[in-house]
Amino acid sequence: MVAQVITGEALDYSQPDGMLPYDKNCVAMTFSRLLGVGVYPTINFLIRKGWITRASDLENDTTINKVIEKLALAARYADTPWETVKVGMQGMQDGRYYATNWGPSGSSGGRGHAFAIVKKGGIGVYGNNQEVKQSESSPSRPYHQSIHATHKISVYGPIL
C-alpha cells in the first residue's frame, strides 16, 4: 500500500548518486517500507521534495528527524525498552511506523539501527537482515531476533 504523501507523484526509479549499498542502508529501506515503494524512488522522492539533498544525507540523525517531521510522523516512544514498546503498540492504530533501535545505551550512544514496525492487528518488524549477519559464511537472521527486551527503541508514526 502506497502512503498518501506519495500517491499521484511521478516516481523516479533510477539509482541515486552516492547511495550506500543495500546492506548498509537501513534508513532508506525503512522509509521505503513506510512509503510503500522501492528504495530508489523513495530516495529520489525525498530529494525532489528538498528534504534531503543527496542519498548520503540519510546517514545524518538531524536529516532523518527532518524527514520524520516532514512526513508528519508523531513521536510515540523515545528511548523506551523494546518489551514496553511491543506491548504498547498493540493499543495503537494499524499502520506503518518508523523505529530506531538504539541498543541498551539509548540514543545517547548515537548508533541506532532503523527498522519499520508494521501493525495490522499484531506487529511485524521489518529490518535490514544483512546487517545482522554473523559472518560472510553464515546466513543472516531475521532482524527481530536481534532486538533484546532491554534495547531502547524510538517509534514515530503511523504514516497515512
Descriptive account of the structure:
This protein is an alpha+beta fold and about 160 residues long. It has a single domain, classed as Cathepsin B, Chain A. The protein has helices at about 25-35, 40-50, 60-70, 80-90; strands at about 75-80, 95-100, 115-120, 120-125, 150-160. The longest helix has 11 residues, at about 40-50. The protein is globular. The termini are close together.
For the record, the count of structural domains works out to 1
The CATH topology assignment is Cathepsin B, Chain A
Q: What is the helix tally?
A: 4
Span from first to last CA?
10 Å
The helix fraction, in percent, is 10-25%
Shape descriptor reads globular
In spatial order, strands of the major sheet run: 1-5-2-3-4
Question: Which CATH class is shown?
Answer: Alpha Beta
Q: Tell me the series of helices and strands, N- to C-terminal.
A: HHHEHEEEE
Q: Let me know the number of strands.
A: 5
The low-pLDDT segments are: none
Averaged pLDDT, please? 89
Sheet/helix structural class: alpha+beta
Biggest sheet overview: 5 strands, antiparallel
The Rg value, from CA coordinates, equals: 15 Å
Report the portion of residues in β strands.
15-25%
Oligomeric nature of the chains: single chain
| CATH architect. name | Alpha-Beta Complex
